[in-house]
């Protein structure tokens, strides 16, 4: 799997831009026991940053979103 870097700049709660990449960002696909590392650098001096995984499919779990302890 190739290393992919995507930068998203959030200007307000209603909009976002993806720099040099289409929005949404790249698909992250991993198999069981794969290790995935995601690094976030918050350069917003007065605002917090969060990441949320949509459609995260879990084994033996009927839910694909709002997975506990992930967001």
UniProtKB/TrEMBL annotation:
One Pfam family linked to the record: Cu-oxidase_3
Domain (Plastocyanin-like): residue spans on this chain: 13-71
Source taxon at top rank: Eukaryota
InterPro entries named in the record: Cu-oxidase-like_N, Cupredoxin
Listed SUPFAM superfamilies: Cupredoxins
GO molecular function terms listed in the Swiss-Prot or TrEMBL record: copper ion binding
Family per similarity comment: Belongs to the multicopper oxidase family.
Protein name stated in the entry: Plastocyanin-like domain-containing protein
Species whose genome carries this gene: Rotaria socialis
Lineage per the UniProt record: Eukaryota, Metazoa, Spiralia, Gnathifera, Rotifera
């Amino acid at each position: 799997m190739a290393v992919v870097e995507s930068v998203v700049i959030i200007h307000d709660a209603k909009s976002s831009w993806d720099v040099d990449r289409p929005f949404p960002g790249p698909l992250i696909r991993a198999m069981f026991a794969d290790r995935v590392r995601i690094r976030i650098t918050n350069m917003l001096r007065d605002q917090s940053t969060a990441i949320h995984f949509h459609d995260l499919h879990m084994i033996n779990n009927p839910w694909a979103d709002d997975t506990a302890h992930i967001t």
